[in-house]
Amino acid sequence: MIVKLRRLAWWSWRQIAERAARAYVAGPGLADALRVCRALAGRGDAATICWWDGDGESPRRVADAYLAALRGLAGDSLNCYLSIKAPSLGFSHELLGELVETARPSNIGLHFDSLGPEGAERTWALIREAVGRGASAGCTLPARWRRSLSDVDQAVALGIRVRVVKGQWADPEGSDRDVRRNFLAVVESLAGRAGRVGIATHDPELARAALARLCAAGTPCELELLYGVPARAPIAIARAAGVPVRCYVPYGHAWLPYCLSQARQHPRILWWSIRDWLVGWRQTVHA
After folding, report:
1. pLDDT tens digits, residue range 134-159?
2. In the chain, alpha helices (H)
3. Among 53, 60, 107, which Cα is nearest to 85's?
4. Hey, CA dihedral for 193, 227, 241, 185, is it positive or negative?
């Protein structure tokens, strides 16, 4: 009986998760992501799109999805770049080469998302290669990692865009840090040095403080928000500061942020999903 109840509970959670997750991805296909980007452009905002691969997707399959996205962006006049995940590409230099050759003629940016710390060095190797091949590249610096302050120097030396995030993965050297304080420390290190900085947070006060530091230093910056997450307060802060807004738009069949694998480990996600579903939060593009 207990086993049957557990199966029933999991089946019920799956139905709720599927419904809740629809608000956090543009849809299953590239056309869905481009549709959202056009809507964002209609209100004067930029975007970055990323195909979220599921478990078991081959690096070749991931690269093909990225290539299709680059071709789609090349045929449109959107202010949008492509976010990519080096581990999903198997850290392949050959596949990266295909992406660079496709992106370069239209000068479409390739932004490297940050995933687990174990892949950081190999990701940076690909970033350096992309820059060496003439790509317009960007990196993501998680505030949770001690190494991010030194990675600022790499990013500045390469002349690439930087996105600052709190970060999902803990620092292997210890995670007892003040993330908000370190977020601002990374921003301070970038201020006056980086070519462009994206502040990726929905925390209004953190966004205000970070953007103020960059603006005071004359560093080009923007606020980056996750599609589907309520964003009225941070958007208002960016508008008041005269800072542009960019929206990170995932698409595909992977569910963000309420993926089922995380739900098994963290049951509280179930209650967050139910809350979102019942309250009916509106998507960022309609904020």
Report:
1. 999 999 999 999 999 999 999 999 99
2. 2-21, 30-42, 59-74, 93-103, 120-132, 148-158, 179-190, 204-216, 232-241, 260-265, 268-279
3. 53
4. negative
